[in-house]
């Protein structure tokens, strides 16, 4: 599980059901992140997130696995706006993903400005 900005100031737990070597299910186990304490965010990162929210868009240079050879990576740009996000390859792939955020999504309480 990758901890994201949405997880800040929450208590994060993941429930799993282990299997033995014969694929028999065990009891559900709840595992907490951060020793059952709220997920922290340093003040500098909180301020950066607030600034990004006030501007309404941000983009990052990222690397995507090249298909079908997963050992090579292609440069791409992840662009995030208030309405959604897109990932565009700089190589032959072009647009890889374009998604619109769902109506029920909201900013985290700590990020309000």
From TrEMBL:
Pfam families: DUF7046. GO terms for cellular component: plasma membrane. It comes from the Eukaryota. InterPro entries: DUF7046. Residues 66-102 form the DUF7046 domain. PANTHER family: EXPRESSED PROTEIN, OS05G0100900 PROTEIN. This is DUF7046 domain-containing protein. It comes from Aegilops tauschii subsp. strangulata.
């Amino acid at each position: 599980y990758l901890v994201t900005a949405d997880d800040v100031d929450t208590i994060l737990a993941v429930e799993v059901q282990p299997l033995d070597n014969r694929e028999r299910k065990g009891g559900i186990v709840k595992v907490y992140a951060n020793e059952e304490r709220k997920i922290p965010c340093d003040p500098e990162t909180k301020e950066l997130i607030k600034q990004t929210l006030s501007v309404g868009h941000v983009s990052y240079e990222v690397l995507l696995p090249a298909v079908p050879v997963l050992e090579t990576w292609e440069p791409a740009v992840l662009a995030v706006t208030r309405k959604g996000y897109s990932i565009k390859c700089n190589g032959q792939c072009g647009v890889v993903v374009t998604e619109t955020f769902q109506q029920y999504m909201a900013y985290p309480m700590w990020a309000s400005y």
